[in-house]
Amino acid sequence: MTSAARTKASPGVSVAMTGSGGSGVMTAGNMLLEAAALAGCYGLMSRTSGPQIRGGEAAALIRLAGEPIEGHDDRFDLVISIDWLNLERFAAEIPLDSKSIAIGDPGQGEPPAAMLGPVTRRLALPMKALAKKIPGGRANMIALGYVGSLIGLPEDALAEAVRRTLGAEGDRLTASLAGIEAGRLAAAGVDCPHRLAPRRSDGAKRWLITGNEAAGYGALKGGVRFVAAYPITPATEMLEWMSPALSGLGGVLVQAEDELASINMVIGASYGGTPALTATSGPGFALMTESLGLAVAAEVPIVVVDVMRSGPSTGIPTKSEQADLNIALYGVHGDAPHVVVAPNSVADCLTTTHWAVHLAESMQVPVVVLSDQSMGQTRMLIDAPRDKDFIGERAVAAANGQDYKRYALTPSGVSPMAIPGTPSLMYTADGLEHSERGTPSSQARDHLAQLDKRERKLRSADFGLHWAEIEGEGEIAVLTWGSCTGPVREAIARARTDGVAVKLVSLRLLSPSYPDRLAAALEGVKRVLVVEQTHSGQFYRYLRAEHALNAELRAMHRPGPLPMRPGDIHRELVEWSRP
Amino acid sequence: MNAPVATLPAAKDFKSDTKPVWCPGCGDYGVLTSLARALADLGFRREEVAIVSGIGCSSRMPAYTNCYGFHGVHGRALAVATGLKVSRPDLTVIAAGGDGDGYSIGGNHFLHACRRNVDLTYIVMDNHVYGMTKGQSSPTTEPDWDNALTPGGTGLRPFQPLVIALASGANFVARAFSGDIIGTADIIAKAVKSRGFSFVEILSPCVTFRPEQRDWKELARPSPVAPTDDPARAARRIMTDDGFNIGVLYAGDRKPYQPEIGRARRSLQDLAEEFAR
Asked: Which of B69, B68, B196, B81 has the alpha carbon at shortest distance from A261?
């Protein structure tokens, strides 16, 4: 019975494809995802690998389903290993149980016992030997054909996915198609309980996109036309996607010499009137914080995307964590009102980064977007994003005005900005405290007036409906943010099948805090479970500091590198709901 | 019949009415005057020029002009100037600052600005001391200059900005002396006109913490040789002179870094197609 409940609430099939570097598991994984798209399914793939730059062990972690999914399941149904190299390193990342099936090549020796301990069913697939029979054949294509067939992906979808990926590459295409066919034949007659129920798409468009690409696209949609950045894992792919895209749109990406330069280049471009962005991860973000304060004081709109990884220091560069929350909220010296927002899914990386550009431009503040490795580097099939029109553009001072005051004290706190080149409005933007005119000032009244003005911009702003995602009703609520939202949503769906009603509140707007709105969202809620991926409970502490939460609170906070699993959250919810 | 001629600003129009924080006798007053004169000589309108700086006495420059200005954080003037110029190639962008700002905390940006060769002018007012923090050794200070922070001196070899600029790829390298208003204005004008990254090191005495620099006016002299376009020759000259030869020392013709901007060849819709399934 529990099994049935789990199947019902835990949709889809989870597959791990592993092998040593160069064995092609990532290529095969991407093709599986493409095939799922063609079959009208949803799906996602994340990648994990050892610390080697090239080579080493690698795994493509894939979950496919007939309905939208946002993260990995608690366990994997299938693991297929082209070889067993260092597979035990992935033991914690690829949880297997008695229902899992392990597929290995008998020619590659014995699998690591630590890894496959609970697995009772093992299938032998001589991938290397089968590949050898095909001129130019590769074991990964055998694996792809075999797995695709076992889980019930249509044959034509697999072949078409291979064709789309390889395009006109003649010999390689022929060999790959022969490879998946050989894999498919090898799977004939093998019974597999883990099957997709593929459905043809209702005609609605899907997008296959990573969170990093989505954030990049959202930024361009918001009007960003200048990016300066320094390579850093796991933000680099966002920049690599943006570079040619920007150049196509008439913008530019400059590779800076370090993150101190990136953020200052971006400030320079924005001062010149061009919406500008930089993207980085924790270590680079730490370097940027001084200049984040400059953007606050000089009132230059910029967007800084922090694709968070495990910290502190170099930490675990390839793994996710939400522990940059504190530095994003509090890392700037002085009283420095700025905006911090967080996307809560791969798809939302697009919308929230788009939103961030408008917030920055309309309030003339730096906006920090806290994405993370797990959203940034996961490739996911999503519904084609709907167009959002975020209102808000930069207030620009009209030419030939008289007695221009760049930092004029206005009711909203926002004062029209002169763009260099405009006659008669010349002023100096300054990180020094200044008068309304921008002249440096150490007078108490100027300091207070400008502090108030900068604070007023945020406090008087209407952040609209996008500030949080609120779903369902219940006496219990989960309060979460960022990439934890996917597993939380799945846990809530499972709890529902147990008869436990749980409300979801996922905050996108983290700074400024929005205590009245949050209080309204939690009206009638008696218990609040706070879920986050930090060791110290940063989000929990932030909630306690900034909000009056009239409910019983429980905190669930864990560090990376392992993802939050829906099962753990589900268990917590069910336990807590007991009278 | 005379066509109506718009009046271009005179040198004085490029100065603001904000009173500088500089000490009486500071070399930077002379640089401000030379800069204003150069901009007027070049026929700029005030709104066409942006002056960008970091932190330090000389970095106060933008507010003392009537152009667009940006006074940012310590050491990052060149980064701000780069972002501004690359995104707004129509503007004339001048970065200005001191030896500490440019060669110490901003040293990395100096190297890469020379390499990148964006069409900027970088003016460094070098007085071999941190003045704003009241007299500590800078990268160009003599190794035995005694001060409270490094008693007896740093013992470190002074930084060689001109040679390093050359080695890093600056397209125009000059040395000026703040006491020579007309000569410095002329060098700044040439630097602004030269395409690519132009570096002007101006000896600008700090009479408060380095009163002995009053002697610089006796030492500074026009460079005895014409500018060269051979960086090796320029480097040899700079490394063997006594640091007081004034003038354009190197003028190259390397193509500036300026990606084409403003012309869209694709739309957001085109970009979305790669994601559609």
From this structure: B81
* pLDDT of res. A198: 62
From CA A59, how far away is CA B242, in angstroms rounded?
Answer: 63
User: HEC string of chain B?
Assistant: CCCCCCCCCCHHHHECCCCCCCCCCCHHHHHHHHHHHHHHHCCCCHHHEEEEECCCCHHHHHHHECCEEEECCCCCHHHHHHHHHHHCCCCEEEEEEEHHHHHHHCHHHHHHHHHHCCCCEEEEEECCCECCCCCECCCCCCCCCCCCCCCCCCCCCCCCHHHHHHHHCCCEEEEEECCCHHHHHHHHHHHHHCCCCEEEEEECCCCCCCHHHHHHHHHCEECCCCCECCHHHHHHHHHHCCCCEEEEEEECCCCCCCCCCCCCCCCHHHHHHCCEC
The rounded distance, in Å, linking the Cα atoms of A474 and A502 is 5
Pick the CATH number of A11-187 from 3.30.70.990, 3.40.920.10, 3.30.70.1660, 3.90.850.10: 3.40.920.10
Smallest Cβ–Cβ distance between A294 and the set B60, B73, B85 belongs to B73
d(CA A35, CA A46): 16
| Chain A hits for B71, Cβ within 8 Å | 428-432, 440
Q: What confidence score (pLDDT) does residue A169 get?
A: 72
Peptide bond into A312 cis (omega under 30): yes
Instruction: For residue A498, give the DSSP letter.
Output: T
CB burial readout B203-238, b (16+ within 10 A) else e: bbbbbbbbeebeebeeebeebeeebbeebeebbebb
Measured in angstroms, the CA of B21 and the nearest CA of chain A are apart by: 10
Helix, strand, coil percent values for chain A (each to nearest 5): 40, 20, 40
pLDDT digits (tens, 9 = 90+) for B36-56: 999 999 999 999 999 999 999
Contacting B residues, span 76-115, partner chain A, CB-CB under 8 Å? 76, 78-88, 90-91, 108-109, 111-112
From the candidate CATH numbers 3.10.450.50, 3.60.70.12, 3.40.50.300, 3.40.50.970, the one assigned to the domain spanning A208-383? 3.40.50.970
Name the residue among B63, B73, B264 with its Cβ closest to that of A290.
Answer: B73
ipTM above 0.90, yes or no: yes
- Percent of chain A clearing pLDDT 70 (strictly above): 98
Residue with token string 């972002």: B83
Q: Do B70 and A424 touch (CB under 8 A)?
A: no
Q: Is A45 on the interface with B (CB under 8 A)?
A: no
Best B76, B91, B117, B118 residue to mutate vs chain A (most A CBs within 10 Å): B76
pLDDT 10s digits, A289-314: 999 999 999 999 999 999 999 999 99
**Helix intervals (H) in A188-281:** 211-222, 236-248, 259-271
Q: Where are the domains of chain A?
A: 11-187, 208-383, 467-577
* Closest by CA position to B68, among listed A354, A150, A272, A377: A272
Which position has the token pair 């002249």? A439
For residue A70, what are its two tokens?
């946002």
At A3, the pLDDT band (50, 70, 90 cuts) reads very low
Q: Searching chain B, which residue's CA lies closest to the CA of residue A242?
A: B271
CATH 3.40.50.920 assigned to domain A467-577? The reply is: yes
Q: Is A481 an 8 Å CB contact of chain B?
A: no
What region does A217 belong to: left with phi over 0, alpha with psi -120 to 50, or beta?
Answer: alpha
User: Cβ separation of B275 and A213 shorter than 8 Å?
Assistant: yes
Residue B83 has its nearest CB partner, among A266, A423, A427, at: A266
